[in-house]
Specification:
The protein contains 9 helices and 2 strands, in the order H-H-H-H-H-H-H-E-H-E-H. It has one domain. By secondary structure, the protein is mostly helical.
Amino acid sequence: MIGYREIIKEGLWNNNQALVALLGLCPLLAVSNTLVNGMGLGIATTLVLVASNTTVSLIRNWVRQEVRLPVFVLVIASFVTAVELSMNAWFHDLYKILGIFIPLIVTNCTIVGRAEAFASRNNVPRSALDGLSIGTGFTLVLMVLGGLRELIGQGTLFSGLHLMFGEGARGLVFSLGDDYHGLILAILPPGAFFGLGLLIALKYLIDRRLEERAARKAVQAEPATDTAAAPAEG
């Protein structure tokens, strides 16, 4: 059975749903024009992932195989509705900005996929941790992509932070100054594709470097092993 450390590593890096599985790209590309928008949708998705994974794990032995997918979708839709109503009540301005992409969390393949592939086969602690790690990995990609697009496109960072943390957060906004006119392409839809492509390429390069380093260490360790084994053979 997969351990807790492996679950976290898989969700955050090895099996990151946005960079590896390439799931949930519609909301990822649509709302990542600012860091705060990405953070808001990412947190909402993470809450649904944790709650739905936990619930599916709890009921997995009671649901017949023939109806498991409709039941899983019903569970996910219930939690999405709760999150949507909560955001509408407490973060109304952010809710209006994110718009249709909050209820569309129901159709996010990542959530349905984790319910079917993991939560329906594992206990509650592991399922909850899987939802948290997968959601956190997805949120981090949303925030990084949104932050890059916002900084390049309009020369700010943390714009709209007050929508989540109140008026006191307005002073935390970073700006490159009034003279920076920005690259409009970055905040347009093509900018999302270019940005995501760069993040995927960066992950590939990092993974390749790590594999090469591990291979060099393995080669360096082989002579020492052979030397230690030689006297025993003699």
